[in-house]
Write a structure and sequence with these properties.
about 375 residues, mainly alpha
Amino acid sequence: MDVLWFLIALGLLFGVLGPYLLRRRGGGIRQVAPGTPDAADPEAYGFARQEELDVRLPGPDEDLLDVLRVVQATQDWRAASQLLAGTGKEGEVRWQRVQAFAGAASLELAQRPGEGGAWLRAWRADTPKDAGGAAVHAEFLVQQAWRSSAAGSDDFRIILEEAGKVVDEAALLAPGDPVPYITKLAVARGLGYGHEQFDRVWAEVIDRAPQHMGAHLAALHYWCEKWHGSREEADHFATTAAARAPKGSLLAALPLFALFEHVPDMVLVRDFYRTAVVGRAMEGALYAVHSARPDDPMLAHVRHLLVSFLVGAERWAEAMHQLVHVDGYVGALPWTLSPDPAAEYTVVRNLAVAGYEANGGSPMTLRP
């Protein structure tokens, strides 16, 4: 009986990994030792080494990285305050920068308990009326709750309740800023707000930024089956937002994120990534990418998720065309769900390179 179960498990494993390892049409992907003449070399495409990948951001933001280096080297918060004060409230960049500052402080504290993130504490103590500092503090508390406590535990709830108070303070300090309310969406999800209560928070967001992609992603989590909604509710939320989105909006990619949230841990359906539902979601995301502004700060988020799905569907050339735009950064879904985002990304990227070359591609044929 043990042998039978082993053979069943082995068959399931091959069913999951087989589409990645073999192409039944065209060329095939063979495993070879690194450095052999037949080995696919990601560096030939200008791709970064695994150890060089930046896990903090989905794409480049040199102003933010420069300020982070100064703040962490000097423990002086003023450069961060100045950067946020000069970042517009109406777009996506402010939200990403608030997340990045909060994440940096949270990671410092995890690495050096009791000492790390001292610059954020000083920021709040020295200038309690600084709207940027309050927004970062609120997001920091949210990240601390998820990082340091089990969801639903007493500690988790206590931290999120404190985050809610700081969110309200941040909102009063910057009335037109959607960022505090986007942070409150995460508080609402963690504390289990009812649908009507959540809708009131969501109304505050869309009153200020109706096309905010980051806000829609935060709200989508709430409506997913694993939190306070269902597959149908998440899909309805995503497809409605996509249908209402103006041309050039990345909200057309939201159904792909809804689909991703409900992909099972183990895909047992053969050719899952070639099913009609997955195909429609990918085409919507590709349309969004092609019609979006090249400098849209959320564009990298969509490209990263597309890479994962396109590789799953063995659409190697299309995956490579997304990779050339995002390589070097891995601070986005799906990689950030892994304990080692750089390693997770590298495996998928290497599969894309191998599949591309197995079907006649080369560095000379790849164009952005």
